[in-house]
Design a protein that fits this description.
Elements (H helix, E strand, L loop, with lengths): L3 H30 L3 E7 L26 H8 L2 E3 L2 E2 L5 H10 L3 H4 L12 H7 L4 E2 L14 H8 L5 E6 L15 E2 L20 H18 L3 E6 L11 H8 L10 H23 L6 E7 L26 H4 L3 E4 L6 E3 L3 E2 L3 H9 L15 H4 L14 E5 L11 E6 L2 E6 L4 E6 L15 H18 L5 E2 L20 E3 L4 E2 L4 E2 L44 E2 L7 H17 L6 E12 L2 E10 L3 E10 L2 E8 L5 H17 L2
Parallel strand pairs: 1-7, 1-8, 2-10, 3-11, 5-6, 5-7, 17-24
Antiparallel strand pairs: 2-9, 4-16, 8-9, 12-13, 13-14, 14-15, 18-19, 20-21, 21-22, 22-23, 23-24
Length: 653
């Protein structure tokens, strides 16, 4: 039998052991709090009114009258909801780049999707024959941009894991090249073609399933994480579970929202969000996880077939009216009191907020435009410190005829917002506090304010180096072009005008050449009058017809290595030539086969605005033809560059 003294000693030891264990548990808990997780939920094309909970408690129509989203509503009740939350752009890819870098799309020069390249179907369909020539958006997220995944890798606890599941749509080599440890690759809308119906429409459950598997692995490894879920939903083409579609077909439609397939997809998305929230609870990490929820732009509102309706907001995707940029915007996490905020915030505020939460070492990268939202979220401040003060600016200098939009910019300061339309050189001023639907232009009522915002917008765009649309002045007919600027087609050939042929561009190029178009599915004939634009005169405005289609060489093609080598020579040559000031390559060479000949194509820009596409074909290792097309004003500059490339490549072994 133990003595009383021995028992007392054992009791003391036991109590010390319990105390030590408790201290260890507390220390582990404190350590976990110092290493929170972040989940970034980025939805595609979800409008401000697409949820069944109000985005603004004071506006009855800030919720759907048809859609049901109980799980996102649950998240909203746990979050700080921003009634004035904005996407960086009215279109998807530019917003995605901005979220990842903390910079505006206009600073990044990524103001449209990667598909908008000269020679692409999108380029010819959207830009040909318009009053303005839009600037060429940068293709692909540049390697020099420091993404949130890269800053986590380099300036945060080495244990942090990063993952990106779903839609990337930024080219540039994909998420892995930009710092993400685990990802789906360089994906885009085309990657969900196989998920068009049951049981996984738009990969809505697959994206969440992969995210949950990732979270489980990190919890098992006791590693904190940054996780981005970029859903393909609710982008067209719409698809949803049949059972859910039938539910909405039998449900009375709302006055604003009426599309049963969109409603069903929106609910399927909501269900996947619910699965994610449930998994966080089951894994025991909800209390140590921040969740950022938003959309890449406002709801899509095609003229012929709208997916949703953004009322009471005006217009939708590709417009800088509120319907195109005001989006669901909510943040939840440790120590944040759920509620509502009227403070205007924007997507590029996420990057510095992520860094503040994760305590990134050192200063933020140069050029960051966003502000840290944490002081405001914690009730410590009512303002957000940004590079350009309290002004929020959007810049979409492009056309998108399917949605009726044209080049435009907007600036919001306080409750007032000025929109500038470049196509008709008009501006509008709105008082958002009293007119959220932007129905009354008050510029005449506040002329001094309108003038001040015009000046502030111009100063911002200049400071940030935004690319601007330029006048597409009437093209000079070939008869009035200086013959010295048009060399023999067997040497160097140039386009002398853009000709709009049913919204497609035909190029004045040597016979036998074709338009380089990654999505080519059309052939035009100069002899077929049905393709002529009104007023077209074949004797004055003649152009070479499109004949045949290019074949893009695959990686295993026997010719591809040699063509790529020649492409590298051409690119190096262009970089080494200093003939025309401001000339840069905006697109890597593409290997082609034209009429049985090896060829390459790439894009040259002058001051990042005026463009020429250059074609080089080879025959027996020597240059056969070099051609270029673009605005007349740069013929004199492009000629020596193309000639120099031809000479250098011809002399290469």
């Amino acid at each position: 039998m133990q003595s009383l003294a021995a028992a007392s000693v054992l009791a003391v030891i036991a109590s010390l052991s319990c105390y030590s264990s408790a201290r260890a548990s507390t220390a582990e808990a404190d350590a976990e709090k110092d290493r929170p997780n972040i989940i970034f939920l980025l939805i595609d094309d979800q409008g401000w009114t697409d949820l069944s909970s109000r985005m603004d408690e004071n506006i009855e129509d800030s919720t759907s009258d048809y859609y049901e989203t109980p799980n996102i509503d649950r998240l909203a009740r746990q979050s700080v909801r921003f009634a004035n939350g904005y996407s960086p752009s009215p279109i998807c890819a530019p917003s995605r780049a901005s979220y990842l870098t903390g910079k505006s799309p206009q600073q990044l020069r990524m103001t449209d999707i990667p598909e908008s390249r000269p020679g692409s179907r999108r380029f010819t369909d959207l830009y040909a024959g318009k009053r303005l020539i839009p600037p060429q958006p940068l293709y692909g997220l540049p390697d020099e941009e420091i993404t949130i995944a890269e800053i986590i890798r380099d300036r945060v606890d080495a244990d942090y894991a990063t993952a990106h599941f779903g839609k990337w749509h930024l080219a540039g080599g994909g998420p892995g090249r930009h710092g993400f440890d685990i990802h789906d690759g360089s994906t885009g809308n085309h990657n969900v073609a196989a998920h068009s119906e049951d049981p996984n429409p738009k990969d809505v459950f697959g994206v969440t399933g992969r995210a949950i598997a990732f979270m489980k692995s990190q919890v098992h490894s006791k590693r904190p994480f940054f996780l981005q879920l970029s859903h393909y939903a609710n982008h067209v083409p719409l698809a949803a579970l049949n059972e859910t579609i039938e539910k909405y077909k039998s449900k009375p439609k709302g006055e604003r929202h009426t599309n049963p397939v969109y409603a069903a997809l929106n609910e399927n998305l909501d269900s996947s969000v619910g699965s994610l929230l449930d998994a966080l609870e089951e894994l025991g990490i909800r209390d140590n996880t921040y969740i950022f929820y938003t959309s890449d732009n406002g709801g899509s509102k095609n003229i012929k077939n709208p997916s949703t309706n953004n009322l009471p907001l005006r217009e939708g995707k590709t417009w800088v009216y509120e319907g195109g940029i005001r989006v669901p915007f909510m943040i939840s996490g440790p120590g944040l009191e759920p509620g509502r905020s009227d403070i205007p915030v924007i997507g590029w505020d996420f990057y510095p907020t992520f860094c503040a939460i994760l305590q990134c070492r050192g200063a933020l990268p140069n050029g960051i435009e966003g502000g840290n939202l944490m002081p405001m979220l914690r009730g410590e401040d009512s303002t957000v410190e940004r590079r350009h003060g309290n002004a929020l600016v959007w810049h979409f200098p492009h056309y998108l005829t399917a949605k009726g939009s044209s080049p435009q910019s907007a600036i919001r300061v306080g409750d007032f917002k000025l929109i500038r339309f470049y196509h008709d050189q008009q501006s509008e001023l709105f008082d958002l506090k009293n007119d959220i639907g932007e129905t009354i232009d008050v510029a005449a009522q506040y002329p001094d304010l309108a003038a001040r915002l015009e000046k502030q917008l111009s100063a911002y765009l200049s400071d940030i180096g935004a690319a601007m649309p330029i006048d597409n002045t009437p093209r000079t007919s070939p008869a009035n072009i200086d013959p010295s600027l048009i060399p023999s087609p067997t040497e160097v050939s140039f386009d002398t005008r853009h000709t709009s042929v049913f919204s497609k561009i035909s190029y004045r190029i040597p016979k036998g050449w074709v338009v380089i178009d990654g999505e080519s599915d059309w052939i035009a004939s100069s002899m077929d009058k049905q393709f002529w634009e009104p007023g077209f005169n074949p004797e004055v405005d003649s152009y070479f017809a499109v004949s045949g289609l290019p074949h893009y060489l695959s990686l295993d093609d026997k010719q591809s290595n040699r063509v790529r080598t020649l492409a590298e020579i051409a690119l190096e040559t262009l970089h080494s030539l200093e003939i025309a000031k401001g000339a840069t390559v905006t697109e890597p060479p593409v290997a082609l086969e034209l009429g049985g000949k090896d060829a390459i194509a790439f894009v040259v820009a002058f001051d990042d605005q005026l463009l020429y596409q250059v074609f080089v074909s080879y025959e027996e290792g020597k240059v056969a033809t070099v051609a270029g097309h673009g605005p007349n004003s740069q013929l004199a500059s492009i000629k020596p560059i193309v000639a120099g490339i031809a000479s250098t490549i011809s002399a290469s072994p």
